[in-house]
TrEMBL record:
<comment type="similarity">
    <text>Belongs to the glycosyl hydrolase 14 family.</text>
</comment>
<keyword id="KW-0378">Hydrolase</keyword>
<feature type="binding site">
    <location>
        <position position="95"/>
    </location>
    <ligand>
        <name>substrate</name>
    </ligand>
</feature>
<feature type="binding site">
    <location>
        <position position="422"/>
    </location>
    <ligand>
        <name>substrate</name>
    </ligand>
</feature>
<dbReference type="InterPro" id="IPR017853">
    <property type="entry name" value="GH"/>
</dbReference>
<feature type="binding site">
    <location>
        <position position="344"/>
    </location>
    <ligand>
        <name>substrate</name>
    </ligand>
</feature>
<dbReference type="InterPro" id="IPR001371">
    <property type="entry name" value="Glyco_hydro_14B_pln"/>
</dbReference>
<dbReference type="InterPro" id="IPR018238">
    <property type="entry name" value="Glyco_hydro_14_CS"/>
</dbReference>
<dbReference type="GO" id="GO:0000272">
    <property type="term" value="P:polysaccharide catabolic process"/>
</dbReference>
<feature type="binding site">
    <location>
        <position position="103"/>
    </location>
    <ligand>
        <name>substrate</name>
    </ligand>
</feature>
<feature type="binding site">
    <location>
        <begin position="383"/>
        <end position="384"/>
    </location>
    <ligand>
        <name>substrate</name>
    </ligand>
</feature>
<feature type="active site" description="Proton donor">
    <location>
        <position position="188"/>
    </location>
</feature>
<keyword id="KW-0326">Glycosidase</keyword>
<dbReference type="Pfam" id="PF01373">
    <property type="entry name" value="Glyco_hydro_14"/>
</dbReference>
<keyword id="KW-0624">Polysaccharide degradation</keyword>
<feature type="binding site">
    <location>
        <position position="302"/>
    </location>
    <ligand>
        <name>substrate</name>
    </ligand>
</feature>
<keyword id="KW-0119">Carbohydrate metabolism</keyword>
Length: 497
């Protein structure tokens, strides 16, 4: 029997946000349908939703040229969100929209950046056959001043500073509570290892994306300083749609287990950590003193999770094996910047996946969330695919409070927040929306909507300066595998309970 409202402490409340449509501000930088959106946002507010999340596209804002920022359309959008009484999570989206699962619109990165790529295509992530991915700049050029005298790190930093200056009223009023810093394709800290626009199809293992001249040179330098100048980047890891056993690299007893393979995978995954560290440091400087939380998104690569080589995770840049935790070092890095770890695929269950993909979304979610909690990082999450059914919602609820509500205080384990993907006509369709409203109520532990986040333990204090850089060996210590925390078999807050 569910507890009565009055007997459940507010500390069990998990706020729920809803992602706005990708093209709510168009590629021409126009906020097209304020009245239509306002009507939808009021419906969300009336359903008890705490806030919304929106992509703030680099390709729209700095479209006209270096440092030529145009924020007006987003200011109008933020005004509407504020009028509707919702909180706002903003994503610094330094990637292209289009070419990924669920991308309904196309918003490229700025043309003046793409123009530089015409004469120097190595600024983009590149696979072994030389195909470039124009969704996001390669982390190999992070500190190369190739962009009218600026490096990508400087470009992202300037953009975030401009956002702060132009949105200072919304930051000061408490409208903006979260700034998620985009760190790769789809805004996720990863390599573009499974691009649909290059022919990848689920459950292909994907491909390593480090064959641009900058990453190649960095690898050669690292290998030489490790005493192995003869080592090259992998040439035996297969193609996008292979299965692990059909490749020399990922097969049983494959290259990934050799000294050379381990060296490569450590280098490849460390490049991502370094990339995240540098950009988060700039984000921290840009938003220093603001009452916001920084966040990053890590992708839920659940296919081949139950195969020994975890091939799809490895090509993505997550060096995760049964005897090596590829996610806890990311969580440990976030402690330096007081940032939230946002993880995807909360809605998925193993039983819903085809057996040939050796998929393990439930175990993956448990591993990543447990790693975050162990490092004392706040963890948040979202669903990977739109779901309108009780089964999907119940799985999210289970992950939000893995051991259920606690009638005498805060739950033992609780996610910081969940963002539902995505606002659409389908979601607001009457029968779908009825189920969604129940889901919102259960996320709130059957309590009424709570306007003041402090009441459920979200104390937004001014952002402190990042702590000193964490030595690499301290990050690597976090690769030691630990068993995940125990999860209940089902949620005590079922949507259909």
């Amino acid at each position: 029997m569910a507890a009565t409202k009055s007997s459940i402490p507010a500390s069990n409340y998990v706020p729920i946000y809803v992602m706005l449509p990708l093209g709510v501000v168009t590629v021409e930088n126009v906020f097209e349908d304020p009245e239509g959106l306002k009507k939808q946002l009021k419906e969300l507010h009336d359903a008890g939703v705490d806030g919304v999340m929106v992509d703030v596209w680099w390709g729209i804002i700095e479209k006209k040229g270096p440092k030529q920022y145009e924020w007006n359309a987003y200011r109008s959008l933020f005004q509407v969100v504020q009028e509707c009484g919702l909180k706002l999570q903003t994503i610094m989206s330094f990637h292209q929209c289009g070419g990924n699962v669920g991308d309904a619109v196309t918003i490229p990165i700025p043309q003046w950046v793409l123009d530089i790529g015409e004469s120097n295509p190595d600024i983009f992530y590149t696979n072994r056959s030389g195909t470039r991915d124009k969704e996001y700049l390669s982390n190999g050029v992070d500190n190369e001043p190739l962009f009218h005298g600026r490096t990508p790190i400087q470009i992202y930093s300037d953009y975030m500073k401009s956002f702060r200056e132009n949105m200072s009223d919304f930051l000061e009023s408490g409208l903006i509570i979260d700034i998620e810093v985009g760190l790769g394709p789809a805004g996720e800290l990863r390599y573009p290892s499974y691009p649909q626009n290059q022919g990848w199809a689920f459950p292909g293992i994907g491909e390593f994306q480090c064959y641009d001249k900058y990453l190649k040179a960095d690898f050669k330098k690292s290998a030489a300083s490790a005493g192995h100048p003869e080592w090259e980047l992998p040439d035996d890891a297969g193609e996008y749609n292979d299965v692990p056993e059909s490749t020399e690299f990922f097969k049983s007893e494959g290259t990934y287990l050799t000294e050379k393979g381990k060296f490569f995978l450590t280098w490849y995954s460390n490049r991502l950590l370094e990339h995240a560290d540098q950009i988060l440091d700039e984000a921290n400087k840009a938003f220093l003193g603001c009452k916001v939380k920084l966040a990053i998104k890590v992708s839920g690569i659940h296919w081949w999770y139950k195969a020994p080589s975890h091939a799809a995770e490895l090509t993505t840049g997550y060096y995760n094996l049964d005897d090596r935790d590829g996610y806890r070092p990311i969580a440990r890095l976030l402690t330096r910047h007081y940032a939230i770890l946002n993880f995807t695929c909360l809605e998925m269950r193993d039983s819903e996946q085809s057996s040939n993909a050796k998929s393990g979304p439930e175990e993956l979610v448990q591993q990543v969330l447990s790693g975050g909690w162990r490092e004392q990082v706040e963890v948040a999450g979202e669903n990977a695919l739109s779901r309108y059914d009780a089964t999907g919602y119940n799985q999210i609820l289970l992950n939000a409070r893995p051991n259920g509500v606690n009638k005498s205080g805060p739950p033992k384990l609780k996610m910081y927040g969940v963002t539902y993907l995505r606002l659409s006509d389908d979601l607001l369709e009457e029968s779908n929306f009825e189920v969604f409203k129940k889901f919102v109520g259960k996320m709130h532990a059957d309590l009424d909507y709570i306007e003041d986040p402090q009441k459920y333990g979200h104390n937004l204090t001014p952002l402190n300066r990042s702590k000193p850089k964490i030595p690499n060996e301290v990050l690597i210590e976090a690769t030691k595998p630990l068993p995940p925390f125990p999860w209940d078999s089902e949620t005590d807050m079922k949507v259909d309970g």
